[in-house]
């Protein structure tokens, strides 16, 4: 049997994921509660999405707070202290504010005084993008310890009067510590893709240089997330399947070598369609979207942490992460845990 690492050039400097952690806010918003907000039903939400409940951050709890809690848990697992962190990357589309970056606020919260810090925005695909960027800094010998976080407070950009979107999203954060380790386990490959021609399918048009905040932009609902659900769905399945195939092709493995497939947790029907087309068994697919809904950049990060802490994944297992989001963006990663 081929060694999936063999194809990859680690330049004698492998990179391991030495810790993962996640945090979701305490407040649970159920489908029954949403029935009181918009014209919907638990039956519709469950049958069309698989989502039963989602977590909602407190009014005074921001993306950086969720990110910090997830980071502390990942640091604990890795045995890393704040002063050891060289770089913090936060993937988010709901930063605390346009600037400074949420990563800088996390750096302050952690007291990680030595760390450089920046955000990246690749929507729901952000965690794989951030993992790959973080790994490159370790492979290039620039840094020893990188903290990568996917964190969102999507409840802050959801239109709670729009039943097409408000039932889908939730808040949360997941984190990973990347470190140089001899003979290590880690990210074997990461495929990343984008198609800006389809930018309009999923967006929040207000708040940037194209549409700064004005009274009109607010009353027109430009600061809320919008989505063409059906088109997004079709694009999601195709992009996720081809990214996953490309990632496995690069590692010279097929789906039977993968212990656990962790797809972006947007919709049970998307997960099932991706699983079918990849010929993954139900036992291989990791699903937690019924508890958290779609948490965008935090989605696969939270799921990875849960898969590890619940014992679904053990050291040495191969994991396939597959993501898709606004941009459009997509990605897939093979990790040797
Ligand atoms: O994270 C980035 C990636 N995100 C995704 O990939 C999400 C992709 N899209 C989806 O998950 C699905 O398209 C949705 C769950 C958003 C929608 O499911 P759908 O089966 O595509 O439904 P639809 O948009 O075609 O809507 C069907 C009907 C419509 O009514 P009419 O026009 O047929 O009378 C909607 O108005 O369902 C209606 N509807 C609802 N009804 C009750 C839409 N939302 C709701 C709702 N409750 N919450």
Please, could you describe this protein's structure?
- The chain has 337 residues and is of the alpha/beta class.
- It has two domains: 7-183, Thiolase/Chalcone synthase (Peroxisomal Thiolase, Chain A, domain 1); 188-336, 3-Layer(aba) Sandwich (Peroxisomal Thiolase, Chain A, domain 1), CATH 3.40.47.10.
- 33% of the residues lie in helices and 23% in strands.
- It is built from eleven helices and 13 strands.
- The chain has helices at 31-37, 42-49, 63-78, 102-110, 126-139, 163-166, 215-219, 229-251, 268-278, 289-292, 299-309, and strands at residues 15-23, 28-30, 53-55, 87-91, 116-120, 145-153, 171-180, 186-194, 202-203, 226-227, 260-263, 318-325, 329-336.
- The strands form four sheets. The protein has a five-stranded mixed beta sheet, with helices on both faces.
- Helix 3 (63-78) packs across helix 4 and helix 8 (229-251) packs parallel to helix 9.
- The longest helix is centred in the last third of the chain and has 23 residues, at 229-251.
- The two termini are 18 Å apart.
- The model has no long low-confidence stretch (mean pLDDT 95).
- The structure holds oxa(dethia)-CoA.
- Oxa(dethia)-CoA binds at residues 40, 44-45, 48-49, 124, 163-164, 167, 202, 229-230, 232-233, 236, 266-267, 270, 294, 324-325.
